[in-house]
Structure formats: structure tokens, C-alpha cells
Amino acid sequence: MKAIKMGVSTLSQQAITIAERIQRALDTLTRAERQLAQAILENYPASGLGPLSALAKDAGVSGPTVLRMVQKLGFKGYPDFQTELREELRDKVKNPISKHDTWTEGAPSGHVLNRFTDAVMENIRHSLAQIEPAAFDAACALIADPKRKIFIVGGRISHTIAEYLFLHMQVIRPDVIHVQSTSNTWPHYVLDMKEGDVVVVFDVRRYENNTLKLSELAHAKGAKIILLTDQWRSPVHALSDICFSSRIVVPSAWDSAVMPLLLVESMISAVQDILWTDTRDRMETLEAIFDQTKMFRKFT
Amino acid sequence: MKAIKMGVSTLSQQAITIAERIQRALDTLTRAERQLAQAILENYPASGLGPLSALAKDAGVSGPTVLRMVQKLGFKGYPDFQTELREELRDKVKNPISKHDTWTEGAPSGHVLNRFTDAVMENIRHSLAQIEPAAFDAACALIADPKRKIFIVGGRISHTIAEYLFLHMQVIRPDVIHVQSTSNTWPHYVLDMKEGDVVVVFDVRRYENNTLKLSELAHAKGAKIILLTDQWRSPVHALSDICFSSRIVVPSAWDSAVMPLLLVESMISAVQDILWTDTRDRMETLEAIFDQTKMFRKFT
DNA sequence: CAGCAGATGTACGATTCGTTACAGATACTT
DNA sequence: AAGTATCTGTAACGAATCGTACATCTGCTG
């Protein structure tokens, strides 16, 4: 029968977590402090529960910086900060609230963000399970081959993802061409195709006639066709040498491009690895040009 | 009868939590030590992460007892015990996702696809944890307001994602404008901005001067600014009314746009829900137009 | 009941940790 | 371009913590 002293313990906070407090104060923090804040949130709350010096080293800042930030957040000192972190952890474990069916805390599990993210995660899982690594590697090898020209083709919506691939490939290697199948000019590009060239085609639901025609002509010219499509597969797949299908269903009137984008980014990364020595030179040159145009900001 | 101990005990390093280790050792502990063990397990792991003296007082035992038990469990000292507790906590929060250690079967876990997907999943998890649902809802409400014009602005790479948002918004509601900050024509668009209009700005690493200038002018005109940026946050965030930051680090020389895209798609879905009756009409009209242009295939 | 062994707590010393003061560096202003 | 304000790290100080030695207590055994 120990004196139950709750009542006061309900004051156990304004229901605002320290993570949120950090998040909210981010604007008032300085550079080094933000760097530290990121490190804390990176693996929260574990890193904040260790010694001050360890946290400082992990974040790449110095001890006093840690202290200053902690005080800015309204704590008396580092020990005070740690105490509240532990309290928070204690409460969190105590509430057996169905955790991870919500991705963003503080939103009902039926919130768009949670429903949407659930679907996307499922899509990624399913899509990847169906992809043959050998096919992926083969596609990357084709794209990385400097002797082949690369044509990238997208449709009304998917051309945005196609352009994303194009913009990166353009930096990595020469002879990359972005073809707008929505425009009337695409036949001109087919003129330049020759046997062995590679055509990367994006075609998802509401498959477009232009895209199919372009693919047929390219196929006839002996070009290799790599197709990124959805789970129902565009008619282009009959002509394609390599085909990747992504699940794209989400709780929305439209389809998701997340999985195709993930594939594209993985490809970029893989191709860049293959061509790294060349790519590095091209990137340095590009940097120099950017410097001259003053297009980007120089600091952080 | 405390014979059995070594031999297998080397495996005690991995995959066995400290809680389990305590449970298992419960028999070999003395009365005061068991009392302490219960207190630790009572609210685990929070209580073990505080100072030794606090734990001792909480359990009703004295300092040295804590130390002796901890050493019995095989730790060098109390700090060592705490360090492993923190490691465990770190792994615990990391794991709910990466329980799949390979995503695509048949590829080594070191394959690009697996490494990349791991990183992306982590990004999604971290980013969403930092997003305030209220801010998201507020942003969607702004975009869904038919009385406000919507300007969508992207940079050299991010304009692809910006355009993705634009293409969908264009279907959902009128008065949506896509501004190319890479082009010289953007000042013309600023001319048309008026107080209450909404500017959706995409700005990730290699923050662009044009994007910042455009935002400053828009801000001066009294437009609401919704910013989608990375974890380091574009300088535009100082002007923004609502800011979403996504983790974008992947094993590649470039950054990932998956998380920003996920946010964009969620927004599209949410806005479409708000405006559904209007959207449906617009979509039907659009379908009719498409039919006449014969742009899409009629089947599947 | 006497004696002993293990268990437990108290008090002190050594060490690590958190904190403060100060100086160098950086960015911004006039 | 010089000056100023702010930020940031190094170094020393003081405080709290951990670990150890020792004394006390409890419970078991003969």
C-alpha cells in the first residue's frame, strides 16, 4: 500500500512529445543545433539517453552546443532533458495503444496519410517480390552501355517520371534523349534509332496509342525496349525485351507513381555505379558550369 | 546447483534481449536482487536508463546491489549495462520495417534493390513521424479552396514532382498554374499573384536562387506558401506558412524523391476528397474530350 | 545457541560527466 | 572593406555518479 501519487502524474505533460518540441523549435535553432536535432530525431529516443559527450560526438558537434540547444528547448540542463525523455518512454510503453498501425502519430489511423502510406508500402513489398534481380541487372547493363543511345519515353502523366530518369541519365552519360510521346514531334526521334539502341518506355493505365505506336516502330528498327508499366501491363510488353510491373493501387481516384519512381531511382544508382569513373568527371564539369551560372546557393 | 552457465553462453550476445537475460537469471539472483529485477522489468527499459541511484531507490534497494546484479548478468559495470540497453532500444524502433532483410527474393541482401528499398522505407518512416497531421490538413484545405489560385513551383530536378502535382490538380480544380523557376518567364507569373493565393514550392538540396527569389516576391504579395523540402530545409522555409520536410538520403550519388512524391500523392487524394463533387464533373468532361482525341486505347 | 557464510547497506575515493568561461571563427551590416 | 554580432569549439572547473572497501545483518548449520 504505497501512497498512490498519481493526480500529479497526469501533469506528465501537455501531451506534447519532446520530438515535437524539437521539431517545432527547429526554426529558432542555429546550424550546429539543427544538425544535432536531426541526429537526435534520427534514432529517437535512444541517442538522447546516453551521455552528453556521446551524443555530441555522434552528431558531430561539441558538448556545449548540446547543452545550449537543450536549454533553448526549455530544460534546465541535460539531466533534466534526459529525465523527461525517460518519462516519455515510460508512458509510451505503458500505453498498449495499437502502435504501428499508424505511421504519423497523432493522426487517427483512418487519416489519409496513414491509409495512403499503408497502401504504398504494400505496393512496394508486392512489386519487389515479383522483380527478378537478373532482369534488373540486365536492364542496367543495357542502359550503362555507352555504345547504345538511350531514348526515354513517357505518357501524359508518366512523362514526369520519365523526365526524372532523363535528367539524371543526362548527367551520367552522353546520348540520352527524352522523347515526348504527347507531342507530335516523336516520329522525328524514331528516325534516329538504330539497332541496339535502348528505348525506356513508361506506360501505365490509360495506355496511350502514341506510346504503343512509337514502341512498334522502335521494335521494328531493332531497338531494345525496357518497359516500366503497372500490374496489368501495357500492350507494349509484347514488344519489350525487359518488363517491370509495379503495383500502383492506392486509396485515391488516381494511381501511385511511387513504385515506378523507386525503380527508376534504383536504376540510376546502379547505372551510376557501373559508369562511376566517367560519371564523376561529368559531374565535376557540371559543377563548374553551375558555379559560373550562379544558379545554386553556395552554402547549406 | 549452479552448474550450468558457460558453453552456450557465448551466443547470449545476439538476439537475446536484456529483459530475457534478466528473466533467465532470476533463479540465480538473491532476494534484494530479484526485487530489483522486478522493478527493472516493471517499466522496461526506461528505469534502467536513469542513474544508478534512482533505480536503486525506485526498487527499494541500495546502490551496490544494483551493481552486483548487473555484474552477475555479465556486464562490466552499470554504464556498460546502460549502453547495451540503449542499443537494444535503438534496434527496436528501427525494426518494425526492416524485418524483411531482403525485399526481392533471390537477390543478395547487398543488392542495390534491397539496399535502396531499405533506405526508402526508413525515409518514409522517419519523415511521416515528423509530419503534423494538422499541418497536412491545413495545406490540403488551402489547396482545395476554389477562391485561391494555386501556383506550383519546382526546381531543376524537383520540377518533375511539381509537374506531377500540377497535372493532377489541373483535373481536380481550375486556376492551377505551373511555374518553371528554371525558366526566365517566372516573373510574369508573380505579376498575377494576389493576397490569399497559394504557392506550392518544391525545393530540395542544391537550393536554387530563383526559387528563393520567387518565394520572396510571392510572400511580399501576401501569398500563402506551402513548402516541400528535404530534411535540411530550404531557406524558403523562413517564408513558408506550412513546411513539410522529407528525408531523402539513399545509397546513391543523388537524392530520393520518393517521399516528396508520396506526400504529393496523399495531398492529391485528400484534396480530391474535399472537392469530390466538382472533381467528378470535371473528370467526366475530360473523359469526353479524351474520347474525341482518341488519345487512349479503349480497352483494358 | 554459537558460529559462519552469504547477503545487504553505508561511507568514502576515483572517475566520469555536465557546466561555465573564454577565445576563435563566421556571417551579416554599415 | 572594416566592424559588429552571433555562433561554435576548446579548456578548465565543479558536481554528481560509479565503484570499492568495510561493517552489519540475516539465516542457516552443527
Automatic annotation (TrEMBL), chains A, B:
User: PANTHER family attached here?
Assistant: GLUCOKINASE (PTHR30514), RPIR-FAMILY TRANSCRIPTIONAL REGULATOR (PTHR30514:SF18)
The residue ranges of the HTH rpiR-type domain are 16-92
InterPro entries of this UniProt entry?
Homeodomain-like_sf, HTH_RpiR, RpiR-like, RpiR-like_SIS, SIS_dom, SIS_dom_sf, WH-like_DNA-bd_sf
Asked if the Swiss-Prot or TrEMBL record annotates the protein with the keyword Mitochondrion, the reply is: no
Q: Which residue windows are coiled coil?
A: none
What would you give as a GO molecular function for this chain, any one? carbohydrate derivative binding
- PROSITE patterns recorded: HTH_RPIR (PS51071)
Indicate what this protein is called per its UniProt record: Transcriptional regulator, RpiR family
- Keyword annotations for this protein? DNA-binding, Transcription, Transcription regulation
GO biological processes: carbohydrate derivative metabolic process
Matches recorded under Gene3D superfamilies: Glucose-6-phosphate isomerase like protein, domain 1, Winged helix-like DNA-binding domain superfamily/Winged helix DNA-binding domain
What species was this sequence derived from?
A: Sulfitobacter brevis
